């Protein structure tokens, strides 16, 4: 803070000696204008970067949603009752019990 105050006093003394009072105000306004322009440029650049990142993330989200729907279809195909019954009969050798083999427990 002290160095900033010293810099301001130095600037004020030099500008007062070299330039008139209205020229100092004009110079300060030019510096403020340039700083404002740099701020606008920076904000525009940041906005473009963030928009590009948003577009990439939305594309990634769409890909994940498509994969999710395909996985749901695959899950429903693998868990279909007919398929499970077929696998139980062919691979595991299971069969539907006959009426005489069914025992009801109370």
> What percent of residues are in strands?
under 5%
In helices, the fraction of residues equals over 70%
Give the rounded overall mean pLDDT.
87
- Largest sheet descriptor: none
Note the total helix count. Answer: 3
- How many E-type strands? 0
Q: What structural class do you assign from the helix and strand content?
A: mainly alpha
Roughly how many Å is the radius of gyration?
A: 39 Å
Could you name the ranges where pLDDT drops below 50 across 5 or more consecutive residues? none
Categorize the overall geometry: rod-shaped
Instruction: Give me the strand/helix succession.
Output: HHH
How far the N terminus sits from the C terminus, by CA atoms, comes to 89 Å
Q: What's the structural blueprint in terms of helices and strands?
A:
Blueprint: H1 2-18, H2 21-78, H3 81-90
